[in-house]
Amino acid sequence: MIRLERRREPSRLWSYVTPVLAVIATMIAGGLMFAALGKDPFEVIRTIFWDPVLGEFAFYYRGQLLIKAGPLILIAIGLSLGFRAGIWNIGAEGQYIIGAICGAAVGLAFYPMDARWLIFPLMILAGAVGGFLWAMIPAILKTRFNTNEILVSLLLVYVAEQLLASMALGALRNPEGSGFPGSRNLRRYESSANTELFEGTGMHWGVVAAFIAVIFAYILLNRHMLGYQIRLTGQAPRAARFAGVRPNLLVVFCLGASGALAGLAGMFEVAGPAGQVSIDFNVGYGFTAIIVAFLGRLHPVGILLAGLLMALTYIGGEAAQSTLGLPAAAIQAFQGMLLFFLLAVDMLTNYRFRFGKREVA
Amino acid sequence: MTLAKLLTGAALAAGLAGGAFAASHSEPVKAGFIYVGPIGDGGWTHEHNIGRLAVEEEFGDAVETVYQESVPEGADAERAITQMALQGADIIFTTSFGYMDPTINVAEKFPDVKFEHATGYKTADNVAIYSARFYEGRAIQGHIAGKMTKTNKIGYIASFPIPEVIRGINSAYIHAKKVNPDVEFSVVWAFTWFDPAKEADAATALIEQGADVILQHTDSTAPQAAAAEAGNVITFGQASDMSEYAPMPRVSSIIDNWAPYYIDRVKAVMDGTWETKDTWDGIGPGMVGIGEISDAVPAEVKAEALALKDAIAAGDYHPFTGPINKQDGSVWLAEGETADDGTLLGMDFYVEGLTGEIPN
Q1: Is B70 left (phi over 0), alpha (psi -120 to 50) or beta?
Q2: N or C: which end of chain B has fewer CB within 10 A?
Q3: Beta strand segments in chain B, E
Q4: Domain ranges of chain B
C-alpha cells in the first residue's frame, strides 16, 4: 500500500532534485515520442540539449541562447516579485509591447541625429517608463476600484497589440518603405542600435540588464525590508497587514516593477534582435516568462537557470526541426512535456510517499 | 579572431565547399525553406512545400532539401535562416513578407549563399525576390462573387494591410462591382496569416452580417468550414485549391504554383548561373492558377470567368484598367490607362466605392 503524506515543510533537497528529475523524465518520454516518429531518439535529444551548447556550431548558438533567454529572464524576474506576493500580472506581453513602442518612438524621433550617448539612454528610459505606465492601469484600477488585475492586465495585451499594429502601419512606419508596414530598422541606425557588447557573443544590453535584475531581485528578496514584506504578503496576507504592510503600495510596486522590466525587455528587443516595430513584433515572451518564473520556483537564480533552459529547448528544438526534419508540433509537444513533468514532480517537494499500512492513530 | 569573423569564415568555407561540390555534382545542392505556417495549413505554406517536393522530384539525389515550419516573423526568423546557412544550405527560400529584414541581415553574413525572399521588396547581390500577381486571380473571383451574391454583401477576411492584400481587395471589388453595381464589401482585418480560430470567427461574423460570399486572404481552411456549416455561402480556395470543400462552399480557387520557379532557381545554383532578380509572374506564366470552377456556378458565369482568365493570361486585359478613382474620389487611372507596377507594389489606398478605412 502506497500513500501520499503531506510534508510539514516543502523538502529543500527535493526542490533542487525535482527539476533535474523532470528534465530526465522529459528526455525519456520525448525520446519515446521521437522514436515513434521514426527518428533516432538519442540523436534528437543530442541535437536539442547538446549541440547548441557544445556542438559544431555552438559558437553561434551560445550567443543565440543569451538573446533568447535575456528577455525571458528580465520579464520573469519582475513577474516573480508580484507572484510571490499574490499579485498576478498576466499581461507582461502588453507591457513588453508598449516598452518597445515607446523606446522605438524616442529613437526614431531623433533620426538621423548622431548622438548615441543621449539617444540610447533616453530610449532605455522611455522603454521602462512605457512598461511601467501600462502596468499602472491594472494597478490603479485594482487599488481604487478593486478590479481583478489578472483580467485587466491580460486584456490590455490585446489593446497593446492593436496599438502596435497601428504604430507599424501609421505613426512609426518607415517613410522610405514604399507603403509596407514596419518602422525603420533601429539596429541599422547607429544611435539607437542595441548592439552586442562583444560581437558574436549575443551579449547585448538587454542580457546585461537581465543579469543585473537577477542580482537586484536576489538582494531585494533576501536583504531588504520590501522583499520581506513581499514574501510575508504572499504567505500570510493578514499577518502582513498587522506587520505594517500597506497592500496598495505593494500592488503598485509589484505591478510597476514588473511592467518596467517587461518594458525594458521590449525596448532592448526592438532595438536589437528584432530591429524594427512590426505588426507581429511580439512572439509571446511575456507569456513564456510566466512559465519561466514558476519553472525557476520564483527564485532569482532559479529564474536565471529556467530562462536558459527554456531558451535551450527553443533553439535546440529549431535545430532539430531543420536538421532532422521533425515537425514543429513535435517540438512543442516536447516543451509541453517538460512543463508537465516539472509540475508533476513538484509533488515530491510537498508530499512524501509512505509504504505500508496506515498506522491506527 | 572575433566570433563574427569566425562566422563569416565558416560561411565562406561552406559556400566555397558548396560551389566546388555543385561543379563536380558529387555532393547534392542543399536548398532550405523557411515557412511561416505549418506545412499542413492547407494553404500558403502547403503550396510552398509542394514546390519544395517538386524540387526533390526533379533533381533526385542531386539535391537535398531542408525546411523549418511555423517560424515567427522577426528575430526568430533570423536565427532559423542563419542556422540553415551554417548547416551548408546553398540556396534558401524565405517564404513570407515578414522575413524581409532577417533575410537581408543573414545574406550580408553569408555572401556565397543565395537567398530568395517571397513577396518583399529588398534585394541584394545574393538576395532575389519573387512574388505572384495574385490580383489577377482576384479579378476572376470578384467577377464570380458579384454574379453569385444574392444579398449583395461580400465578406473579405484580410490578413495584414500590406500592398499585396490591398491589391487583392481592390481587384476583387472592381470586378464584382462591374457585374453587380449594388455589391458591398465588408473587410475584416485578422492581423494573422494563419490562425484557424480567428479566421473562423471572422467568417462567422461576416456571415451573420448577411454576407453570402466569403473571400479570404488568410491561409487556413477554417473559413471554408465555417461557410459550409452556415450553408448557402460560397467561398474560394486561397493559395491552395482547397478542393475538399468543393463544389460548395468552395466554387473556385487561386492556386499558387511555385514549383517551376523553385526548380528553375535551384537549377541556376547547380549551373552556377544564379543571379539576383525580381520576379513577379501571374496567370500567364503559370505562377497563379485558377482552380476548377465548380458546378455550383451557372455555366454562363463560368464561361465569362474563364474568358476573363484567358484575356488576363494572354495580356489582353489588365485587371487595373481605368477609369478607376481612389476612395476619396480623386482620379487614379484615366479611361483606358493601366496601372504601373510601381504603384501596384506600393498600393496603400482603396478604390472608389469601398467603405471603411485601411488600418493606419
Answers
A1: left
A2: N
A3: 29-34, 63-68, 91-94, 114-118, 127-132, 153-158, 184-189, 213-216, 234-239, 250-256, 278-281, 288-291, 324-325, 331-333
A4: 3-132, 134-255+289-345
- Dist CA A337 CA A23 (whole Å): 9
Q: What is the CATH number of the domain that holds A270?
A: 1.10.3470
> Cβ B161–A181 below 8 Å, yes or no?
yes
Find all residues with CB under 8 Å of B229, minimum gap 6, and list them: none
- Binned average pLDDT, 10 residues per bin, chain B of 360 residues: 47 43 64 93 91 95 93 87 92 93 93 94 93 95 96 94 92 96 94 89 95 94 93 92 90 94 95 94 93 93 95 95 93 93 89 87
**Number of domains chain A is built from:** 1
CATH for B3-132 is 3.40.50.2300
- Which tens digit of pLDDT belongs to each residue from B149-206? 999 999 999 988 888 999 999 999 999 999 999 999 999 998 888 889 999 999 999 9
Report the residue of chain B nearest A52, measured CA to CA.
B83
Per-residue model confidence (pLDDT) at position A345: 85
Indicate whether A55 belongs to any domain: no
| B80/A318 CB distance under 8 A | yes
Host domain of residue A203: 60-307
Q: In Å, what is the CA distance from B125 to each residue of A37, A103, B320?
A: 40, 33, 32
C-alpha cell at A89: 500580472
Count of residues making up chain A: 361
Chain A and chain B share a number of CB contacts under 8 A equal to: 112
pLDDT of A200 > 80? The answer is no
The CATH code belonging to domain B134-255+289-345 is 3.40.50.2300
Closest by Cα among A95, A90, A82, A99 to A287: A90
Contact A280/B360, CB-based, under 8 Å?
A: no
Nearest to A178 among B79, B80, B346 (CB): B346
Domains B3-132 and B134-255+289-345 share a fold: yes
Strand, helix or coil for residue B215: strand
C-alpha cell at B297: 456556378
Nearest CA to A74 out of A220, A263, A291, A201 is that of A263
Question: Across-strand partners of B34?
Answer: B68, B94
ipTM score for this prediction: 0.76
Q: How far is the alpha carbon of A214 from chain B, nearest alpha carbon, in Å?
A: 24
Which B-chain residues 17-46 have CB contacts (< 8 A) with chain A? 32, 38-39
Other beta carbons within 10 angstroms of residue B11's beta carbon come to 20
pTM for the structure as a whole: 0.80
- Residue A244 in any domain: the answer is yes
